[in-house]
Amino acid sequence: MTTRREFLVAGGALATAGRALPPIRGRAAHDIVFRRGTVIDGSGTPGVIADVAISGSRISAIGPGIAGRGREEFDARGRVVAPGFVDIHSHGDESLDADPRAESLIRQGVTTIVVGQDGSSRGAGPAADAFANYLRQVDAWQPAVNVAAMIGLGSVRGAVVGNADRPATPTELVRMTAAVTAAIDAGACGASSGLEYTPGAFASREELIALARPLAARGLVYASHMRNEDDRLLEALDEAIAVAAGAGCRLQVSHLKTQGPRNWDKLDAAFARIDAAAATGLDIAFDRYPYVAYSTGLSNLFPVWSRDGGTDAFFARLDGGDTATRIREATLAKVESIGGWDHVMITGVRDAADRALEGQRLGTAAARTAVDPYAFAVALLQRNRAAVGMVGFAMSEENLERILAHPLAMVCSDGGAIATDGPARRGHPHPRGIGAFARVLGHYVRERRALTLEAAVRRMSAMPASRASLADRGRLVVGAPADVVMFDPDTVRDRATFEDPFQYAEGIDVVTVAGEVALAAGERRGSGKGRALRATHRRQ
C-alpha cells in the first residue's frame, strides 16, 4: 500500500486533505464522493487510489476520477476509505434505548454491531414473537449504528428452566429449541452461549448441541464464551468444537484468550486445536479485543456452583459453614491465578454510596479500610445485590499480538456504546468499548506491525459480516449499503485508558451510515440511520 507521505509527495498535498471540499453549485451527480483516497475494500487485497461515490443509501461508483460531482465531497488524499467496521462481539445495545447516538462506536468507525453475546440477549422469552418484537424495538430506537442480534442460550434457559443447576426436562428442551428456532426465523444471526455465567453454565453439552442444531440448516454460527478461559481452557475449547460438530453448525470462539500467567503457554495448543478442527471441515473462527485485561462481573470470581439458584441463594452460601469456606478457597485460588486482588479493578456499582470505588483496584481499596480483600469483595457484592463490574488484568501482550495476527481471527470490542456525556456515561468502564478498533489500527498495525492495514480492515469488516451472515455488509463494492469510514492511517489511535476511559478515538475523519454522514471533522451529524439487520440464511 502506498504510504501517506509517498502519496502526498507524488500528488501534491492540499491543505484540505481529509476535509470536506467546497459545496458545488448546480445539480449533483452523487450525494457524497470521497476523492482520491486509498480504498481498502475489506477483501484483504492491497489498497488502491480511487474515488468512492454514494447515491442515496448505496455505493454507486468506485474508481479513479469518477465523473460528476457530489452534493458533498471529501478530500481523501492521504486517507484510507474502507467499509464501516462490523463489531462481531458487542454489548452496545445495552444503552442504545437510552442513548441511540452510539458515540463511542461511530467515533471508531463502527457502523454495525453484533449483539446478544455471551449467552445473554433480549427477545429470548418463550413467546414466539419475542425476538421479532425486539428487532422492531431496535428500529424504533433509530440508532446511529446497525444492530444484528444473536439469540442468547443462557437467556433462553433462564426464561424456560430458571436459575437452577439441573438438566432441562424433555418438555423444557422442546420449548427452548422452539424459542431458538423462532428467533432464527425472525432474523437472528446466530446463537451464543455464556458458559461461565449463570444460568448458561448449567447447560450440558447435549443441551447445547440440541439448541445449536437449528442453526445448521440456515448456515448460522454458534458463538461461545467457553466454559473456561484459564486452567481448563483446552478442555473448554474441545467442548465448543464438539458442540458445533455435533450440531453441524459453524463455530465462533468468543474473545479467545489464555487467562492467567500460568496459562499463557497454552496458546500453541489452542491454535493447534482450532487448526485441526478447521482441517476436518468445521467452519471455525474466533475474535478478540486488543487489550490484556478482561471485563466481567465481580461475582464471576466466585465458583459457578456457588451461584446456583440466583443472588439470594448465592448470598446464603456466603454466610458461614463449610460451604462458605469452600467458596472462599476457590475464589482465592482464582484471584491468585490472575495475580492478586490488585489485578482486579472495580468498574461499576449499583449502590451510589460505593460510587467512589469505581476505577479503584480492589486490593488497594480494601487496604485503605483495613479490611481483608475477600471480605471486602463479599460485602461489596452484598451491598450492591451482586451488581458489581470488574476488570481483570490477566493476559499476555505477546499472545494478544499472535491472536490478532492469526488468519482466523477478527477484531471485536466486547464492549458497550459509551459516551462522554449523557446516559451512556456510566461507571468506570473497560476502554475497549471506546477505543478497540482505533487501537488495532494505531497500535497493532502502525506501531507494532503485528498485521497489515489491509488484513486489519478485513478482520473489522468482511470477515465479521460473513460470520454474522450479513451478506451485503463489510465490503466496498458498488450496490452495497453505504456504510463507509475514512481515516488517517498515520494518526488514528485510541485515547481511552484504564485510568481515564472516557476519551474518544482520534484519526477517524468521516463515517457514513446508510449514505448519511454521521461524523465529519470530529462533529456528529445525522438523525440515526441505523436499523435492525436480519441474517441472510444459506443452506449447508
Q: Tags for this entry?
A:
6-stranded parallel beta sheet; alpha/beta; 540 residues; 9-stranded mixed beta sheet
Walk me through the topology:
Layout: H1 4-11, E1 30-39, E2 48-55, E3 58-63, E4 70-75, E5 80-83, E6 85-87, H2 93-96, H3 103-106, E7 110-115, H4 130-141, E8 146-149, E9 151-152, H5 153-160, H6 170-186, E10 190-194, H7 205-216, E11 221-225, H8 233-247, E12 250-253, H9 267-279, E13 284-288, E14 293-297, H10 311-317, H11 321-338, E15 344-349, H12 362-368, H13 373-383, E16 388-393, H14 397-405, E17 409-411, H15 432-447, H16 453-460, H17 462-467, E18 484-487, E19 508-513, E20 516-520, E21 523-524, E22 532-533
Structural overview:
32% of the residues lie in helices and 20% in strands. The protein has 17 helices and 22 strands. The chain has 2 domains: 85-295 and 394-466 and 480-495 and 506-520, Metal-dependent hydrolases (TIM Barrel, Alpha-Beta Barrel); 298-392, no CATH class. It is of the alpha/beta class and 540 residues long.
CATH class label of the largest domain:
Alpha Beta
Query: What's the CATH architecture of the largest domain?
Result: Alpha-Beta Barrel
* Low confidence ranges: 1-15
Give the end-to-end Cα distance, rounded to a whole number of Å.
Answer: 37 Å
Largest sheet, described in full?
A: 9 strands, mixed
| Beta strand count | 22
The CATH topology of the largest domain, please? Answer: TIM Barrel
Q: Treating each run of at least 4 consecutive H or I residues as one helix, how many helices? A: 17
| Rounded average pLDDT | 94
Structural class: alpha/beta
How many domains would you count in the coordinates? Answer: 2
Rg (CA only): 23 Å
CATH-defined superfamily of the largest domain: Metal-dependent hydrolases
Cα shape: globular
Binned, the helix content reads: 25-40%
Proportion of strand residues: 15-25%
